[in-house]
Amino acid sequence: MTAMPATPDARRSPAGPPSEPGVPADPAVLHEPVVSWFAEHARDLPWRRPEAGPWGVMVSEFMLQQTPVVRVLPVYEQWLARWPRPADLAAEAPGEAVRAWGRLGYPRRALRLHGAAVAITERHGGDVPRDHGQLLALPGIGEYTAAAVASFAYGQRHAVLDTNVRRVFARVATGTEYPPNATTAAERRLARALLPEDEPTAARWAAASMELGALVCTAKSPDCHRCPVAGQCAWLLAGRPAHDGPPRRGQTYAGTDRQVRGKLLAVLREARTPVPQAALDAVWHEPVQRARALDGLVSDGLVEPLADGTYRLPAS
Known about the structure:
The chain has 316 residues and is mainly α. Helices cover 51% and strands 1% of the residues.
């Protein structure tokens, strides 16, 4: 995301009846205080600086999915130092992207980012495309990432719906503590209805509402006293009613196949030559789960089995 200063021109179309439930007649009553709050409180993150450029924004968006900022920062810095442009990454084997991903988790994101870098190099002369449709056509780029890159890197008008934004909108506009487990069509309509009409304000609003969810309107301990739109928040005005929807999904890790996969990948990341089966067998005591995890890594393209029974990170 690119931090941008507040503007006094944070306005939408003239006031009228809301098109979606929870949308105020003039959404500028939300835009102006949130954008102003962001101008004062936004974190100084490397992907928000001008020198990050569109490629830095794209790398950050891949890394930040389901991963806290504090874990991303060192890997991001190392990644951009090694691969400052998409063509630099595209020239390497995909296994090097997996190796450099380290312990960020969900390592298929590394393969997808490598695939996007190859496509950018081959289709767009090594420059991250500005067009939203071209972004969406890149391998590994979904609805959220395309909108985020177009908005944060190029200042375009798109609804950017990550977990933080969805939680802010659920509380402020619909009066519920948490959004649904998966993004719904109603949430997309709400996000579009709340989007400022002019592009600069829309891009600031996208970054600001995301930061508000990350720093103030947090999942477990929202600090409503610091919220710039507390006076308009339907959830707060209703007395902060407890969540009564489907149970929220937990993030278990210990003892899962994810943990075993991580241990297997750690051995392969550290090795510069193919790894024998015995070295992988030593990382987990339960053979059936270990074999299942290894098969999953091979199926996902994260590990390459060789004819002599050894394994390595993917070379092509």
